[in-house]
Specification:
The structure is a single chain. It is built from 12 helices and 13 strands. The chain is an alpha/beta fold and 363 residues long. The chain has 2 domains: 125 residues, Enolase-like, domain 1 (2-Layer Sandwich); 219 residues, Alpha-Beta Barrel (TIM Barrel), CATH 3.20.20.120. The strands form 3 sheets. It has a 7-stranded parallel sheet with strand order 5-6-7-8-9-10-11. Strands 3-2-1-13 form a 4-stranded antiparallel sheet. It is globular and about 60 Å long. The structure holds 2-succinylbenzoate and magnesium ion. This is o-succinylbenzoate synthase.
């Protein structure tokens, strides 16, 4: 049983401004969730919602309200033996993910096993890629790509949007003919837009991520029929049922699984198993998580179905200093899967406290 829940809104500046098709950000505010059980054991989770409702419907404010008014009170009353038995609400995936992750961390710590082992992970290192935002100029983009390739990252993903697509992608491809490269539109193209994707189909990309709006699965299936580059879904997949529908329709040949977007590790695990049964390659996407959420992403990426590099870059790609006492590091494009119990990282409470904008405890 959980005896105490702590919620902290923590704000950290990004080392490099990040622009997607819908918005730009310089700093992030995520909510750290701490669960403390009746024996005093502790688990940490992270609610990594964007501040505004542009990637998905949730916001930091909506997550804070749902966590405060529903998830925290519900978990204090709940009897659960395993994280898969936590009480649930509809939707509100990011908010739920913070609690699910904290429950998994607690569960694994109490048993003295690394989270990756608890989830069924097999890898000791995971392959890392980077996600690069829209830059003011193509030269700026080439500089960012050069920096990350020099650091050893195994794959580069470029954000695209109408007006920033064929030209920058062609420039990067010409400079790096053998780079594992893909694009992510975050659903910015009108349903049925084919010509841009016909061009991008000639650039040797490993995938095109989320070209159309999240619910427009039929448009994704029609595009996949017309191009050979695999389509990868991100925003479209919030529940395991969404994945089943997408695969049935032929709307994706690759899937980006995100712990945050799917309401936590429990649901991501189910989606993993379904994708493996369908022979669909997976990778783990990110939301610029702080060290807590990223440690969960690293653990998930150690599962056998994650056969493509994940967005689990080292802390240094995002933050000058992370919320964990040790940063997550990437060497030669690989991130070690932690071997310590639970998430395998400790939270730097002094640093977190110094960057907390609002906190509330429940018991
Ligand atoms: O679509 O994958 C996305 C960041 C914020 C919102 C959406 C996305 C992203 C990223 C960053 O691509 C991935 C990372 O955490 O490195
Ligand atoms: Mg994406």
């Amino acid at each position: 049983m959980i005896e105490r829940v702590e919620l902290r809104r923590v704000r950290l500046p990004l080392v490099h401004r990040f622009q997607t098709s819908s918005h730009a950000k310089r700093e992030l505010e995520h909510i750290l969730v701490t669960l403390i059980d009746t024996d005093g054991a502790t688990g940490w989770g992270e609610i990594a919602s964007p501040s505004g409702p542009f990637y998905c419907a949730e916001t930091v404010e909506s997550c804070w309200a749902v966590a405060r008014d529903h998830l925290a009170p519900m978990i204090l009353k709940a009897a659960w033996e395993h994280p898969s038995e936590l009480p649930v609400v509809r939707g509100n995936y990011f908010a739920r993910a913070g609690f699910d992750m904290a429950a998994w961390d607690l569960w694994a710590r109490v048993r003295g096993v690394p989270l990756a082992t608890a989830l069924g992970g097999e890898r000791v290192k995971v392959e890392a890629g980077v996600s690069l935002g829209i830059e003011p100029t193509i030269d700026d983009l080439l500089e960012q790509v050069g920096l990350r390739v020099a650091e050893g990252y195994r794959r580069v993903k470029l954000k695209i949007a109408p007006g920033w697509d064929v030209e920058p992608v062609t420039a990067v491809r010409e400079r790096y003919p053998d780079l594992l490269l893909h694009v992510d539109a975050n659903g910015a193209y009108p349903s049925g837009e084919m010509s841009v994707f016909g061009e991008l189909d000639q650039r040797g990309l490993s995938m095109i991520e989320q070209p159309y709006a999240p619910r427009d699965l039929l448009a994704h299936a029609a595009l996949q029929d017309r191009i050979t580059t695999p389509i990868c879904l991100d925003e479209s997949i919030e529940e395991v049922g969404d994945l089943a529908t997408a695969l049935h329709l032929g709307a994706a040949r690759i899937v980006n699984l995100k712990v945050s977007r799917m309401g936590g590790l429990t649901s991501a695990l189910q989606a993993h198993d379904l994708a493996v049964r369908h022979g669909i390659p997976l990778w783990c996407g990110g939301m610029h998580e702080f060290g807590v959420g990223r440690a969960a992403n690293v653990a998930l990426s150690s599962l056998p179905g994650f056969t493509l590099p994940s967005d689990v870059s080292g802390s240094a790609k995002y933050y000058a200093r992370d919320v964990t006492t040790e940063p997550i590091v990437c060497h030669g494009g690989l991130v070690d899967v932690p071997t310590k119990p639970g998430l395998g990282f400790d939270v730097d409470l002094d640093f977190v406290t110094a960057h907390t904008t609002r906190a509330q405890n429940f018991s």
